[in-house]
Design brief:
Strand order of the largest sheet of chain A: 1-8-3-6
Number of strands of chain A: 11
Largest interface: A-B, 34 and 34 residues
Helix content of chain A: 25-40%
Number of helices of chain A: 7
Largest sheet of chain A: 4 strands, antiparallel
Radius of gyration of chain A: 19 Å
Oligomer: homodimer
Structural class of chain A: alpha+beta
Order of helices and strands of chain A: HEEEEEEEEHHHEHHEEH
Shape of chain A: globular
Distance between the termini of chain A: 33 Å
Chain lengths: 231, 231
Amino acid sequence: MDREFEAPAQSAFDRLCPLYRNLPANELARLSALARLQRVAEQQYLCRQDSPHDRVFNLVTGAAAVERLSSSGRRQILAFVFPGDIIGLANADRFGYGVKSLMPTTFHEFPQRGLFALSEELPGLKSNIRQLQSLVLALTFDQLYLLGQKKAQEKICTFLLQLLERLPGASRDCIDLPMTRLDIADYLGLTPETVIRTLARLRASGILSMPSPQSVCIHDMQQVRSLGDVH
Amino acid sequence: MDREFEAPAQSAFDRLCPLYRNLPANELARLSALARLQRVAEQQYLCRQDSPHDRVFNLVTGAAAVERLSSSGRRQILAFVFPGDIIGLANADRFGYGVKSLMPTTFHEFPQRGLFALSEELPGLKSNIRQLQSLVLALTFDQLYLLGQKKAQEKICTFLLQLLERLPGASRDCIDLPMTRLDIADYLGLTPETVIRTLARLRASGILSMPSPQSVCIHDMQQVRSLGDVH
DNA sequence: CGGTCTGTTGAAAACGATCAATACGTGTGG
DNA sequence: CCACACGTATTGATCGTTTTCAACAGACCG
């Protein structure tokens, strides 16, 4: 089923990105013609909350946080996004969130109308978009369960398991965290102190170690799974 | 903009349901031909978590809870649904949630494939489906913020405001709650005791009163808004 | 009348938040 | 190269909210 294809040489399209899955070369070329490759430094906004929703992003390298801010200063990170992830497939008037890079980041930017118009011509692309929209909703439901039901330790373990699955280059031997403790806290509905203390307790239990504040090594994956999966 | 239309006499389609917005009579008839009107008693499942996702529901009367269960016995209610609400527009293999009626409930049941196939023929229907999918995602993002950032009192006030907007027949003078304290707790990431105590404190402040456990009267809407909106 | 389920209240405990101080790491300018 | 500043990470002490456990009240039903 996984048809092989040749991406246009000038494009940096990632074959692993689900938006491009199973598209033949000529369709990939049309997609590629729509995209503009962009680059931002650390802590820059790809888009701001409440700005007109006219673009769709596809992360190529780096990492970013999808965040919702309130004027009272509180922040909820809705998702972390990594290479291959798509942002902005819903069709709303305005972005309901801001997207901020956590490190120097490159991404493809599609005009939303153009992408949707093309998807009307290319059934494969439309199918990929549908599946991605459904995937985002499913992941968001998982997060609702996490925020509503899980305890701090379970949240942290789930978070580590998420990174293992989705962060490129992460293995149980070494997870290199692109986000700060505050970012993690705002993602999990905790405070940075609780994040730190929970990690410290997991370290004290021998479940993991932290050679540096930015890198986590999991030693007892079984434990992490049983704490994070909550089945 | 709101075109008037005549719904087929034999159909009970609600004009207020966004799925049917701006559809001409002949298209409504084709939709109606797809739907089967169903009826369930209280506490019955319209669909069960992990069962094949082959149907789409549209609540006509009653109320239901969209819930996710874990085998450890915990439960997160992802949403409450009321007349006019649509459930199951994502295209996944299986339902990621169960839908349980909170009272005797009637609903239209569409075959998922048939509905999507029809939407390929009717651009208006397709547009409505798109908008509904985006709306669900936006509401879910709101809920992520609520669960991650808001305190118990803010959660309760936001919940009351949600009911005022979405529960048919609700007014500030009287909200008739179709769900139990435990349902509310599982929706807001609290315990039933905390829900009760928070409501008791709001009552003690004179912000609201509760003539019976199932009915809430809001006396100080300004306060409820400033607590629930968190701006 | 007894049983069950939901709602309510109380007391105590636990978890996570808050406040405060300190350590660490990096980059800058002297 | 060192001194310093700044931001992040860490730790400690304390506080407060929410949870937990327990008991009881009320409604509904058999």
